[in-house]
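User: Is it possible to get a 3D structure for a protein together with its bound compound? The compound here is pyridoxal-5'-phosphate. I've pasted both below.
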Amino acid sequence: MNLARFPRRRYTAGFTPLEPLPRLSALLGPELWIKRDDLLGLAGGGNKTRKLEFLVAEALREGADTLVTVGAPQSNHCRLTLAAAAREGLHCRLIIEERVPGTYSPDALGNNLLFDLMGVESITPVALGSDLGAAMAAEAAAVAALGRRAYVIPGGGSNPLGALGYASCAQEIMAQSFDQGVAIDRIIVASGSAGTHAGLLVGLTALNAGIPLTGINVRRPQAEQEANVHALAVTTAALLGTPVPDRSAVSALDRWVGPGYSLPTPSMVEAVRLLASVEGIMLDPVYTGKAMAGLIGLAREGVLRRGERVLFIHTGGSPSLHAYAPALRDPVLQPQ
Ligand SMILES: *Cc1c(COP(=O)(O)O)cnc(C)c1O
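Assistant: Yes, that's possible. Here is the predicted structure of the complex:
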């Protein structure tokens, strides 16, 4: 696997920490570790930073002066794309998909406030079910009409080029695992637009790591998500020139999605509050809270065995916590 062949910007100095979670392990049984990708570079960190290192390098190579992308009203991906644009001296335009009707508000806190602070050029809300590709193409055409040049980044940065960021994370994890003398038995990660899950799988396969990877879905039914992840793994492996992962290696569990994308669940609230109170680590309500709820559930069910070394990838997202305060604070769940 030769990632140095691909143009890359650097937004993080060195590796993110690979840390033990001793107090959580004592509560749950398995020996838990965490990969702190919430501490990646760019405003607020999180997994999109790794993808943007490759995507923005490509945008600059093409001579773009404007990044265009799409996300939900509290999108971490939009926040980080905007931060990369600010860092590079580019403009940034956002399409906001209202995945839960009525949830876009220009006054919302969390990531939405940060869009404003980082100087977003425009925000265009569209309804769930809109053709997002067409909406972004229209935005790119509007940029071109000004005599400028847009580079369109798909939702979540999840195309083969973006997924390289997580093939590189697999390489980083294996290097740390060897360096720290920590042999990992299983990796657990949130699975959304699929680039993180697919990129990790491609990297682990290329490195012949022999570590099973379990995705915890935040949006889609299991079969649909597994097909998405596998399709992206196939095209990412082709770009990288490495072996295609088996379909049987793709596991994306949907039991912790709850009523839908970004909608709070009791197990998410428990997971966010538990990690905060026993380890001092902030998860997020939409992705890592549900993924950690999955890890906790699998440990309680005995699927994760006592003493098994399990690495949880913390993909970030805590800047959205304040936008979900009522659901997180109150033990009786309220609509977001
Ligand atoms: C986007 C995101 C994910 C999911 O990653 P995908 O590559 O979209 O599957 C997980 N956690 C956080 C905090 C995210 O913002």
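Residues 160-180 form the longest helix (21 residues). The two ends are 43 Å apart (CA to CA).
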